[in-house]
Specification:
Elements lengths: L5 E3 L1 H8 L4 H14 L2 E2 L4 E4 L5 E10 L4 E10 L6 E2 L2 E6 L5 E6 L1 H19 L6 E5 L3 H10 L7 E5 L7 H10 L3 E3 L3 H5 L4 E4 L18 E4 L19 E4 L10 H9 L7 E4 H5 L12 E4 L4 H15 L1
């Protein structure tokens, strides 16, 4: 028996997500992954012919919820700049029928930021007081939204190259938290920071951990640009490295690929992932050196949020 899936556009997705405890859904997801109740395959990257772009498929199975799905995200090369979209298809493991087709733009922003927040909660020193955010767009704002209550932040510094010329975005950031200070330079923003969240779409390094004055937690996200990375690949050798999922992240994260090929780094240097941390298989790190958390974005995160949206919608 066939069925027609719910189709959710970006506006509907935003409204439904506002009613969902996204970090809590992700915490359950990673505990399920640790317990063997979820499956996370590697990302699937497919290139278009003649350098016209690519698409990445993010897959995932949530057995306890009886669903599986795929988010597909194309990177389309155009003269006016690349176009990136994303759609998530949720399927029933009982009937084999589609349940939901959702514009994944809002889901991606929420799960990216909330995954970082889960990592910050699990990894940052309990007395962390100084937060720095590099980036000011929607993803950076979502990061701020999800981490602002995780510690007793005494200062929150935000920097991006265009922010000084964008008072509207500065006001949006300060409306999210009155502790936000708009830094006039990257160096000012990260000075003495306990936690530094890199929330950019940069294809190359935006900070060098070697220049920091004290050990910090540095979090980094991904973009579709080939081998994108926000820290120098060689810096991995000098940091305690964690990631969202150790079985798949090293095969996609740009700095890990380059560090392995050119700087003698090894995947076995990863101390743990979010499944390990949330199931307490590994402990919170000490801070005798920098701690680095790398997220590439997992299909399971997309599927878990799509399922939460589906449950609300029905």
């Amino acid at each position: 028996m066939s069925s027609t899936p719910y189709v959710i556009d970006q506006t509907q997705a935003r409204e439904l997500l506002a009613r969902i405890d996204v970090p809590q859904i992700l915490r359950k997801l990673f505990r399920d992954l640790a317990a063997g109740h979820a499956v996370q395959p590697a990302q699937q990257l497919v290139e278009f012919p003649q350098g016209a772009g690519d698409f990445i498929n993010y897959l995932g199975v949530l057995a306890e919820d009886g669903v599986y799905g795929v988010k597909t995200s194309p990177y389309i090369v155009r003269e006016q700049g690349p176009l990136v979209t994303a759609w998530t298809l949720l399927m029933s493991m009982q009937t084999g029928q589609p349940l939901l087709l959702c514009d994944a733009g809002e889901l991606t922003t929420a799960r990216t930021a909330a995954t970082t927040a889960v990592a910050v909660d699990a990894l940052a020193p309990l007395k962390a007081a100084r937060l720095a955010i590099i980036g000011s767009g929607k993803v950076a704002q979502a990061h701020l939204h999800y981490v602002k209550a995780l510690r007793d932040w005494q200062s929150i510094s935000v920097y991006s190259p265009t922010l000084s010329e964008d008072p509207a975005t500065a006001r949006q950031l300060q409306a999210l938290d009155p502790r936000v200070n708009i830094a006039d330079s990257r160096e000012t923003a990260i000075a003495e920071a306990d936690v530094i969240m890199l929330c950019t779409s940069s294809a190359g390094p935006v900070i060098d951990p070697a220049t920091l004055s004290k050990p910090a937690l540095i979090t980094s996200i991904s973009t579709n640009a080939p081998r994108a990375h926000e820290v120098p690949p060689q810096s991995l050798n000098d940091m305690q490295v964690f990631c969202d999922y150790r079985l798949t992240t090293p095969g996609s994260a740009g700095e890990m690929l380059i560090a392995r090929e050119q700087h003698g780094w090894d995947n076995n240097a990863i101390l743990g992932d979010l499944a390990d941390l949330l199931s307490e298989k590994v402990q919170r790190p000490d801070y005798n050196r920098h701690v680095f958390f790398r997220s590439i974005g997992l299909g399971l995160e997309d599927i878990a949020l799509a399922n939460a949206v589906y449950q609300l919608q029905r």
